[in-house]
Amino acid sequence: MASGKDDSIIGHTTGKIGPVTLTTWKKLNIVKSNIVRKRGTKQSEKQILQNEIFKLILQFFTPAKLVIDTGFQLPKNISKTHMNLATSFHMKNTIINVEDKCYIDLAKVKFSQPIKLTKQAWNPALSAEEGRKVTITWELNPYPQKCSQPDDEVIIVIYNRNEDLYLVNWAVGRRDMLTYTYLAHKQHIGHDLFCYMFIASANSKLISETDYLGMVTVLN
Questions:
Q1: What is the 3 state secondary structure string of the chain?
Q2: pLDDT in tens for each of the 220 residues of the chain?
C-alpha cells in the first residue's frame, strides 16, 4: 500500500502502486516491479534476479513500444528486435540493486539508440506552470548540419511514476516548432512527471540521442 511522506523527493507518494513500488535511494528516483514468484519453481538467486530485472524492464517499456521501435535502430544482419536492444541496454545501464531488490534509475532511461545520427534539440528546457501545464522548449541549432532539418520530428515521452503511466509517448511536432505544452488531468495534480525527448528525421532514418529533461510536479 502507498503512503504519504512530506519530505520525499518524489512527492507525496511512496510504496506500492498496483504492479510497481515507488521509492528513492541516495536521491535517485527509481521504480521497481512487484514480482510474484510461482510456487514450486526452484531457481538460483542469480536466475531469480535476472528474471526480476527482465520483467521490470519489459513492464516499463512495453507501453512505449512504438517509440522504442523508432528510437532504437537495428544494426544490419542482426536478428534482434528493437525491444531486445532496449531491454539489453537498460539491463546493463540503468538497474540499481538496493537490499537485493532491483530498480530502474529513471534519470538513465533512454528511448533512442541511434546508428544514423541527427542532432539533438538545442538547449532543451522543462518547466511546470500553474494550470496543470508542463512545457518543454528548445532552440534551433545555430550551427546546423545537413542532418538537421526544420521538419524533423520531435518525440516527447512523459512518464507519470505515481501511476506507472505514460502520458505522452509520440511525435508532438516539428523541430522548428520550438515549444510543446502538455495539459495534465486534474487527477494528476501533485504527481511527478519524468520527461524525455529525442529527434527523428521526417523519414525516421536519422535519430538523435535521448535528452532526459528532468522531473517536474504538476501544479494546480
A1: CCECCCCCCCCCCEEEECCEEEEEECCEEEEEECCCCCCCCCCCHHHHHHHHHHHHHHHHHHHHHHHHHHHECCCCCCCCCHHHHHHHHHHHHCEEEECCEEEEEHHHCCCCECCCECCCCEEEEEEEECCCEEEEEEECCCCCCCCCCCCCEEEEEEEECCCCEEEEEEEEEEHHHCEEEEECCHHHCCCEEEEEEEEECCCCCCECCCEEEEEEECCC
A2: 455 555 544 455 566 666 667 777 777 777 776 655 555 557 787 888 888 899 999 999 999 999 999 999 999 988 899 999 999 999 999 999 887 788 999 999 999 999 999 999 999 999 999 999 999 999 999 998 899 999 999 999 999 999 999 999 999 999 999 999 999 999 999 999 999 999 999 999 999 999 999 999 999 9
Residues 6+ positions from 92 with CB-CB distance below 8 Å: none
* Extents of the domains making up the chain: 15-108, 122-217
Pairing of strands 28-33, 133-139: unpaired
Superfamily of domain 122-217: Immunoglobulins (2.60.40.10)
Which candidate, 92, 26, 24, 103, places its Cα nearest to that of 59? Answer: 103
Q: pTM, whole model, 2 decimals? A: 0.81
Nine-digit cell string for 59: 513492464
- Cα 169–chain centre separation: 9
